[in-house]
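User: Before I run my own analysis I want an independent prediction to cross-check against. Here's the chain; please return only the structure tokens and, at the end, one sentence I can use as a sanity check.
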Amino acid sequence: MSVNKEELVSKLSDGTAIIGIVGLGYVGLPLMLRYSAIGYRVIGIDIDQGKVDVLNSGGSYIEHIASSDVAAALKAGFEATTDFSRASQCDALILCVPTPLNKYREPDMSFVTNTVDALQPYFRAGHLISLESTTYPGTTEEELLPRAEKGGLKAGEDIFLVYSPEREDPGNPNFETRTIPKVVGGHTENCRAAGEALYKPAIDQVVLVSSTKVAEMTKLLENIHRAVNIGLVNEMKVVADRMGIDIFEVVDAAATKPFGFTPYYPGPGLGGHCIPIDPFYLTWKAREYGLHTRFIELSGEVNQAMPDYVVSKTMDGLNDRCKALKGSKVLVLGIAYKKNVDDMRESPSVNIMELLEAKGAVLSYSDPHVPQFPKMREHHFDLSSVPLTAESLSSFDAVILATDHDCFDYQLILEHSRLLVDTRGKYRNAEVNVIKA
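Assistant: Structure tokens:
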């Protein structure tokens, strides 16, 4: 056990270590607040000067994170910066950067590799580097290890590599950063011990695994489990609809079985940074081993087809009223990827909007959590949220309920929509002017 490792573990355990959070988004920002709240000095690093300015002024750009919490962190010593050289002052660097897919549905590791390359000149003996971004098994060894050791540092002796997948559920009041168990895998036993020392003060339960690959695969299994089951129930929805059966009633009834069944509910498609993306990390990596993950790929195909299904059901509903989709005014209710949050990442609502626009619909949306359509890497609509009133609702030829926020007045929507397309089962018992999609 090296002296550097002993010193690092001691500093992490007694709260004197400086924690660097690289990437101050939905994962990094809550983590920063947690470490700051328990007395650690935290330096946040991000490439977005706008985010840095907001944080340093005591503000928050994430709806469920209060500005008062950021202000408290600033008072406790937190600071945000775009200066990667500040990494040299930190004892631990936690990387929370995006891992999207490219247009070929293959992993885009550029955010991870570019971040590590920017940090590499400032790596020093005694540094702990923990990657939290969801990725394929082998990333820590294949991408982080050579970069960490580039300057002559030896992993497990001079510098310590950890993979600990992020687990966040924005908008879920039942869980927070502290209460969600943390899986930690190290490149070596020394690395794992350092990782345990990093997370143990901040997280109620730390789950140690034997390697970074196991930790990387764990995250993928968690999300593939959900993606496959959602794909199954989405396919069941299409079958049940053709048979005139309410799939939501079916799932509720099946959920009364006290063993062997977990209820999953259908929707307009998958959203969020994890579930629509993570399975493809494994399918891509599996090809290196001559394997094809047919089950995973099939569920991905089903889930990706759901926005088309919603648009098709909308077209059918308009057709029954002797109207074409082209030229029709369509309102999409809820454009965040899940209820009660402002997170737009991979939202199926956006895919629905693009399909509608391509077919000539005149689009509007309403989402109190997203007042202005945000700048996104691949999508853009110059739109702002429409207030819901009896008059505004009745002006649209079709209203699509895509994300079922609690703040919507569902009775108002039902009473004043000419045609209501329900993708979330909110109007299961309605018999007039509702298309169940």
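Sanity check: The chain has a mean pLDDT of 94.
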